[in-house]
Amino acid sequence: MSDPLSLSVIIPVWREAAAITETLTALGSVRRAGHEVIVVDAGSDDGTASLARPLCDRVVQSGKGRAVQMNAGADAARGNVLLFLHADTRLPDDAMTRLEAFAETGNAWGRFDVRLSGQRPLFRIIAWFMNQRSRLTGICTGDQAMFVRRDVFKALYGFREQPLMEDIELARRLCLVSRPFCVESSVVTDSRRWEKHGPWRTIFLMWRLRWRYWRGESPESLAREYLSDVRTG
């Protein structure tokens, strides 16, 4: 018989003062149910950590980089399931019910479907393709709120501490352990990046970077191009 679900939600943040209160308030029901929420701050200078402390179980300080931060959060976690949540992403109302169902399975890990917050019809199409791609390949991205059993995460040595594609890299290794447990209820992720840089430009950029990553180009060179594109957009 599987152990009851004990969840640790791990949120990597940097300069998220504008959004962190809303993000953590939305997770109040998770904490009231006896699970923990861990915020991992990479030295924000805008008061993010101070705003987070009253609304989470602990704030962990770490070096910069999403992979570095998520590994630091996992090291501090007590739950038997780790859920990695972006600061601009909201879990669906039935998330805990879905995660409890996951805990009763033999799957090592899983992810949610995703929906973009913007109202443009194109955003619904983008999300549909993201979800279908994930179903076909088993690979997911951080926007889909990946969750994994802690013992499996530790056995795989966690996220590879690279500057980009750390989510895809871990998903590849997790697929060698089991297929993901796919939750059809959608997390909602902020569409501001898509709106700021334009949806078609963002699609082209991300697919181009993923294609080059799959062909073996280093995450470091891809990260430099990503940052250059974002800054000039």
Map the helices and strands:
Layout: E1 7-13, H1 20-25, H2 28-32, E2 36-41, H3 48-52, E3 58-61, H4 66-76, E4 81-84, E5 89-90, H5 95-103, E6 109-116, H6 121-137, E7 147-149, H7 150-155, H8 166-175, E8 181-189, H9 192-197, H10 199-214, H11 219-232
Parallel strand pairs: 1-2, 1-4, 2-3, 6-8
Antiparallel strand pairs: 4-7, 5-8, 6-7
Keywords: Cell membrane, Glycosyltransferase, Membrane, Transferase
Protein name: TIGR04283 family arsenosugar biosynthesis glycosyltransferase
Pfam family, one: Glycos_transf_2
What is the multimeric organization of the chains shown? single chain
Average pLDDT value? 91
CATH architecture of the largest domain: Alpha-Beta Complex
Distance between the termini: 52 Å
Q: What spatial form do the alpha-carbon principal axes imply? A: globular
Global Rg: 17 Å
Strand order of the largest sheet: 3-2-1-4-7-6-8-5
Low-pLDDT stretches are: none
**CATH H-level homologous superfamily name of the largest domain:** Spore Coat Polysaccharide Biosynthesis Protein SpsA, Chain A
Coarse structural class: alpha/beta
Task: Assign the CATH topology of the largest domain.
Answer: Spore Coat Polysaccharide Biosynthesis Protein SpsA, Chain A
According to CATH, what is the class of the largest domain?
Alpha Beta
Separate helix tally: 11
Please estimate the helix content: 40-55%
Number of domains: 2
Q: Number of DSSP strands?
A: 8
* Secondary-structure element pattern, one letter each: EHHEHEHEEHEHEHHEHHH
Sheet of most strands = 8 strands, mixed
Q: In percent, how much strand structure appears in the residues?
A: 15-25%
Main location: membrane
InterPro entries: Glyco_trans_2-like, Nucleotide-diphossugar_trans, Trfase_2_rSAM/seldom_assoc
Subcellular location: Cell membrane
Domain Glycosyltransferase 2-like: 8-154
